[in-house]
Amino acid sequence: MLDIKIFKKLNSFDLDISFKSDAKLLAIIGKSGSGKTTLIRTIAGFEIIDNGYIKVDNQEWHKLSIQERDFGIVFQNYALFPNMNVYENLKFANENDNKIKEMIKLMELNGLEKRYPYQLSGGEAQRVALARAMMNEPKVILLDEPFSALNYELKQKLYNEIEIIKEKFHTQIILISHDVSEVYRLADEVIEIDEGKIINKFKPDKLPIGKIIEKKENEIIVECDGKVYRVRV
């Protein structure tokens, strides 16, 4: 359970956000520069809040160092160690060999263990980054637009991995995304922020920036800003 009340002065506006959420996957949406990334950086401890609190399962994270906060994080650029192969990147997070093998199997990384980041495709590198973030089964995993640079096919593959994480782990996921179809596909709850403040909180099927045109057995067709998105469900 996330329980957050944050006030932080920024250059162009104040980040002033308060919410509670027990959603398995909470998506945070909003235009560029609205404060989304600053929000997850404060949860991680990379940014210090001026006032308020950050609680995860009643644990006061705002009083903890970055190292004491039980989270994993995945960025758009993967942030893998270039001088370590796949196996070594995972071992850096957790040296338990059985756990490494389990995560390699779960994230379908078999055969890639000895490859270095430069030898991986974008989708493979992002799966490694997800696996590394989950090695210690953190309470929270923070995803900062991790799929925005990938093509449609790779995104669908990574979405499946996120669904696996949601099913198999007791980890709460916070996803920053600009992709309407991604939010519809993955989120259990959505927060929309603008200039550091929450302007909407809702379930994906009531997403105000998009309109459901048609529902099929395995697909939802959504119109947003004049574009049509086909969302697999």
Quick recap:
The chain is of the alpha/beta class and 233 residues long. The protein has helices spanning 36-44, 86-93, 97-106, 122-133, 152-168, 180-186; strands at 2-9, 14-21, 25-29, 51-56, 59-60, 71-75, 140-144, 172-176, 189-194, 197-202, 211-215, 219-224, 227-232.
Could you please say which CATH topology applies here?
Rossmann fold
Residues in β-strands, percent: 25-35%
What structural class do the secondary elements suggest?
alpha/beta
How are helices and strands ordered from N to C? EEEHEEEHHHEHEHEEEEE
Instruction: Supply the CATH class.
Output: Alpha Beta
Q: What composes the largest sheet? A: 6 strands, mixed
Q: How many beta-strand elements?
A: 13
- Overall pLDDT, averaged? 90
Lateral strand order in the biggest sheet: 6-7-8-3-9-10
Name of the CATH superfamily: P-loop containing nucleotide triphosphate hydrolases
- The percent range for helix content is 25-40%
- CATH architectural type: 3-Layer(aba) Sandwich
Low-confidence stretches: none
Please state the CA-atom Rg, rounded to the nearest Å.
18 Å
Taken from the alpha-carbon principal axes, the silhouette is: globular
Task: Report the end-to-end length measured between terminal Cα atoms.
Answer: 25 Å
Tally of distinct domains: 1
Number of helices: 6
Q: Secondary-structure blueprint of this entry?
A:
Layout (H helix, E strand, L loop, with lengths): L1 E8 L4 E8 L3 E5 L6 H9 L6 E6 L2 E2 L10 E5 L10 H8 L3 H10 L15 H12 L6 E5 L7 H17 L3 E5 L3 H7 L2 E6 L2 E6 L8 E5 L3 E6 L2 E6 L1
Parallel strand pairs: 3-8, 3-9, 6-7, 7-8
Antiparallel strand pairs: 1-2, 1-4, 4-5, 9-10, 11-12, 12-13
